[in-house]
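Reviewers of the previous submission asked for a worked example of the structure-prediction workflow described in the proposal, so we include one complete record here. The input consisted solely of the amino acid sequence. No template or homolog information was supplied to the procedure at any stage.
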Amino acid sequence: GGAPAAVQMEVAVDVKIGLLLGSRGLVMRAQREGRAVDAGPMLDLAERAEAAGLDSVWVGDSLVSKPRLEPVAAMAAIAARTSRVRIGTAVMLPAIRSLVPLAHSLATVDVLSGGRIVLAMGVGGAFTPEQAQDFAAAGIDPKTRAGRLTEMVRAMRMLWTEEHVSFDGKHVQLDDVTLYPRPVQPGGIPMLLATHYRTGSEAQALRAARHGDGIMGISDSPDEFAQTIAKVEELARAEGRDPAKLERVYYMTVNIDDDAARAQADADDFLMAYYGVRHWAERWGPWGPANAVVDRMQAFADAGARELVVRFASWDQQAQWARFEAEVLPALRQA
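From that input alone, the workflow returned the following structure tokens.
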């Protein structure tokens, strides 16, 4: 069932596959080694992912709390080095930015990429004190972040598709604004919203059902992700939208190593440096051999994911990619 597998990659699991290009890791390594950041390895990996037949590549987002490359500029560089893959954010925080300049930057990078941009957006995950620093640095009250996100998604869609846009929101005010260039993609750039339902809170699910082009899960188990999908689809139907048109993407974090203990140690070291806390660590994985990664990917596909974005929790992204390409991709492609 579900959408047909992408032509260039006939996978047994019937899902599209994306790769998270870790710009955070580039900055961490440069800091650790006392040198300037080199983006070369990230851009090389984007090329390698496209050559291997992947469907998409993704970059993360944070301002000062977890230093990394700014995502829109990074997407433009990736667009220049690739020709086919979709290029996404996982997950962008629009609320720390100013609306109209952001809409302009995103429309521009959609033009530069020939219409290949996709945006997964959120309010800031677990929202640790570290994440609050991003809002403080941007001069935004973090208490407004959910409302700002909702209004920004609505207003950006209007700016990308209409002229003389006026918007009178609590957080966003526009008075007769017409923005060009338009994104290449008809209807604007797809906006997926980070969503989980395991807490029983309908707020995220309702935001996605009303305003999103789909959802991205990050911390759900396969069963929980299936529940999240069901809830969003039910709410979308109630809003008069076609649930079949919603994208369903799951972002997973893995470490591939035949020695599970070594995989765990590498992942732990990387994620502690990355986040400074162990949030979600027990929900992520697997850390271990390729077949465990394949099985987990199959489980998320069976739960209803139509695209899986894979992030490597490792200091050696190139080595992880080599194993993924050699051991995981062929297993997924066996129809």
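The first strand starts at residue 16 and ends at 20. We consider this example representative of the routine output the project will generate in years two and three.
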